[in-house]
Amino acid sequence: MTRSVHYSVRLPASGVARGAYVLGDAPGGKPEVILIASGSEVSLAVQAHEKLLAEGIRSRVVSMPSWDIFEHQTQEYQESVLPPDVQARVAVEQASTFGWERYVGAKGRVIGMHTFGASAPLKELQKKFGFEPDQVVSVAKELLRRKQSPAAPAKVTGEANRPGDDASIAKMIGSL
Length: 176
Fold this sequence. Notes:
By secondary structure, the protein is of the alpha/beta class.
């Protein structure tokens, strides 16, 4: 049995010029969770989006190539891309997590690295730091479960938020 996932993909040309745009949306365009990424992380967000939709979770993928350009758009446009009523938001950034909190808000999560110096094969590092579709899906689902919970500050997901990770990184580096 094959399951087909249907969602709208918007053409990005005009959106790129606006700094951010909706790349993929759930049918009806009313997302429960928003996945935000730029560059190579966009494909990861799209893969997670497809998994969420297959599970019946309405998600949106926002490609955000330029914060600065997006910040200069009208409030109406910004809210059409990042509706303020959708507070379950996940940003994915393999470089610095600095600044993404302004887009995920107090109830969102940033998946990213916030340390320097890890070295290992790329696939191991991606898994270690949560740069896999299943990890993005897991974080999105966690945010949806917490939706009824009191507001918690935006959290950066990465190695420093997991017990023992510094030792794990040292072990991984030492095994190379």
